[in-house]
Amino acid sequence: MTRPSTPEPSGGPDCPVAATADLIAGKWTLLLLSALSEEPRRFNELQRAAAGISPHTLTVRLRALEDAGVVLREGTRPSVYRLDESGRELLPIIDVMRSFGARWLLD
Prior knowledge:
about 55% helix
């Protein structure tokens, strides 16, 4: 008698869901992506959009998103940040989260 094959468990090193969650789960990351979904923004505009984020944390988050190929930085002083192609592919996730929050979490 042969045993039915069991599916590979999720969350391993090659799991695309885990990799995406690692990318977007950091504090402030989704707020920054949401702000950039509207239009390209300068550093100070992003800092205002994510009220309470420190300049250091904003710099760290933006660099991580740049390194991941999700955000592009254009120009120098003042730099403008915008979503790259892979960043734009995250927009449906952000839209669903926005709708969920509006419907179920906010009055």
